[in-house]
Amino acid sequence: MPKLKYSLRAYDSGMLRFHREIKRGFEKADPLLGQIRTVPVSHGGNTRQVSEPTIVETEMRKFSQEIVIEAGWLQSTDIEKFTELMWNSCQALISDTKKYMFEILGKTTEAVGNSIPLAGRNVWDAQIEALERTEIRFDKDGNHHYQTVLHPDTYKKLMENPPTPEQEKRWQDTMDAKKADYYAKKRTRRLS
């Protein structure tokens, strides 16, 4: 008599695909990750972020979790327990993704000399310096859609210390100069 095998490979594979789709959905709904285009990769090893002046290579990091689905949830079709499990799992993976993304961004901006130290400085002056270093594009209506992502502590400092009138003027003058430069470069492009 042949030995019976109890394998749920098709079920496990289906659950993995289902979980990935849910995670992608939550990422798209995330205010930050939802704005970033993702590309699936099929390689391992390192990715070069910066070649010069300092080489920065980052390794692909695997994020994983062990998910336990209790048989009783399936038998009683407990959607609430299953939904809670998926929600918590995806939120943990998204949190890990963001932490790693900011780690890579920190290494990259440091390597190219584009980090701006905040220690001992007025936070608005640092924000204006960051704006001065940033390439900004404008749409046909002249809107820039410029956004800044800040650490919660930095955001708190910004909210506790409003900009001076001079800093507001410097910000606006910088933005106006960025706009004029963007449109000047756009006008001089020629088709070959």
Walkthrough of the structure:
This protein has 192 residues and is mainly alpha-helical. It folds into two domains: 103 residues, no CATH class; 65 residues, no CATH class. It is 53% helix and 5% strand. It has six helices and two strands; from the N terminus they run H-E-E-H-H-H-H-H. A two-stranded antiparallel sheet has the order 1-2. Helix 4 packs parallel to helix 6.
Brief descriptors of the model:
two-stranded antiparallel sheet; 53% helix; mainly alpha; 192 residues
Summed up, the helix count is 6
Helicity, as a percent range: 40-55%
Number of strands: 2
What is the succession of H and E elements? HEEHHHHH
Q: Tell me, what's the shape?
A: elongated
Instruction: Give the termini separation.
Output: 76 Å
Query: What's the arrangement of strands in the largest beta sheet?
Result: 1-2
Q: Structural class, from secondary structure content?
A: mainly alpha
> Which range does the strand content fall in?
under 5%
Mean pLDDT: 82
Topology:
Layout: H1 9-29, E1 46-50, E2 56-59, H2 71-75, H3 79-111, H4 123-133, H5 152-160, H6 165-187
Antiparallel strand pairs: 1-2
Helix pairs in contact: 1-3, 4-6
What is the compact description of this entry?
Helix content is 53%, strand content 5%.
